[in-house]
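ok trying again, last paste got cut off:
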Amino acid sequence: MKKINIDRKSKRQIRHKRITNKLKKFDNKLPRLVVTKTNANIFCQIIDDQSGKTLVSSSTLQLKLNSKNKESAIKVGADIAKKAIAKEIHHVVFDRGGNKYHGKIKLLADEARKEGLKF
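nice, full thing came through this time. structure:
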C-alpha cells in the first residue's frame, strides 16, 4: 500500500532505513561517516561497525560555531576529514542519516572530499 500522507520525520526515517539496509548489503568493512542534522546543530561521526566504537567525531558544538549557516557545515566537514586523516582513515562509507543530499549535508560531504577523505 502506498503511503501518501506521511509527515517529514517519517519520510526521513524511511530513507534512513533504506540507506542502512544498502550499507549492510555491501558490507565492505569500511567505517561509516554518519551525519546527523538537527534544527540547531550538525554532528558527524566516523564509526567502526565491527567494534561498535566511534573513531572520530566533530560538530558545531565542539567547534563553537554559529550553526544556522552553511559555512559552519563546511567547517565541520573540513574538521572531520582532518581528524580522520590524522588517524590514518582515508576511505569511509557516507551515511547521511536519512537526510536529503542537499544544502548543508552536500556542503559537508564536498568539503570532506576536498580535504582528502574518500567515499
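cool. The two ends are 35 Å apart (CA to CA). The CA atoms of residues 82 and 115 lie 7 Å apart.
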